[in-house]
Structures are given as C-alpha cells and as structure tokens.
Amino acid sequence: MSRLRRCGAFLGTLLAAAGSVPASAGAAHAEAAVQTCAGTWAVTYDPPITNTPRLVAGVLTGTFPLCTDPQAFTASYTQVFTDVVSCTTLLNAGSTSRTYVWGNPLAAPTTFTYNFTTTVVAGQVVVTNTGVITAGRYTPGSAVQVATLVTPNALACAGSGVGSLTGPTTLTIYAP
User: Given 5, 71, 118, 127, which residue has the most CB atoms within 10 angstroms?
Assistant: First the structure.
C-alpha cells in the first residue's frame, strides 16, 4: 500500500474515532475548517504516575504527519506542565496554550490558547482542547484538538508506576 493511501486510511480512522466522542465534548462550529491534522501524541510523567495522586512534571508531545492545508502539511508541538495526577486522573481540566510548528518553514508557527477537559469514554481518557488561535498562521481562528489515551495498566499503577502514555489525536482549525 502506498504511503499516501496509508496516510489517508490513517486520517480516516482517526477522524472516525474523533467523531465517536460525544457532541458535548467540544463546541459546535459554524465556521469552515481551514486545517485538519491527524497524528499521535504522548505524555511522559516524572516521577511515573501511580494510584496515589502526586505532583509530577510532564511533557506533552504531538506529531501530525498528515494535515490538509498544503501550505502547512505537517505539524508538531512540545509542551511542559506540572500537575497533581494519578493513574485515575491523567490530566486535570484547565487552561493553557501551546504552539504548533508546521512542516513548511514558511508557515508561521500557530499559538493555540485553550481550555481542556478530560472524560472517560469506553475505558479511554479523552482530552478535548477548545480555544482560539492567538498568534501565527490561522489567526484569529478557533480550534479543537481531541486526544485519546488508553487507561494505564492497573498492575503498573499499583507498583512502580506508569512513565508514559500515547494515543491518537486530531486537530481542526476553523476560519474566523
């Protein structure tokens, strides 16, 4: 199967998965989507998370190998955070911002300022980021990023802990 067909199948699968998230997870958008990306994200915890809530340093990374805007065809981000979390609370709700760097160096990085919530859907944690584009490409649009993490291994949570988790993610940016 060609790389393009694999990426298309991957995008279709991720978008279908994102569509299975309840409608209440994100705001409805009357605006047109100007960019849609599919990829993976990962979170690392230091120290590893266990069943006992504790303050951890975390790093979120995301890679979008396939985006629909030909001028910004791939994207990535890295975001550092601290939070009191456990295996049952992977992230708390809150507000923050992150910057997406596009694969095309001519496309200005995009800063996304958002609120995030977490819900459990079919045994997986779904993180929904909803907000506005405050700088760079797509300003002054809005955006939604939906990311899914598999619930951590119960034995590891009861023992030495879980140091990292990963899952699929989608990003949709809307015109103002």
Answer: 127
125 has a pLDDT exceeding 70:
yes
Instruction: Quote the CA–CA distance of 99 and 46 in Å, as a whole number.
Output: 22
DSSP string over 25-77? GS----SPEEEEEEEEEEEEEEEEE-SS-EEEEEEEEEEEEEES-TTS--EEE
Q: Report how far Cα 65 is from the mean position of its chain's Cα atoms.
A: 14
Q: DSSP strand E in 103-150: where?
A: 110-121, 124-135, 142-150
Where b means 16+ CB within 10 Å and e means fewer, 88-126 reads eebbeeeeeebebbbebeebeebbbebebbbeeeeeebb
Residue 29 has pLDDT above 50, yes or no: yes
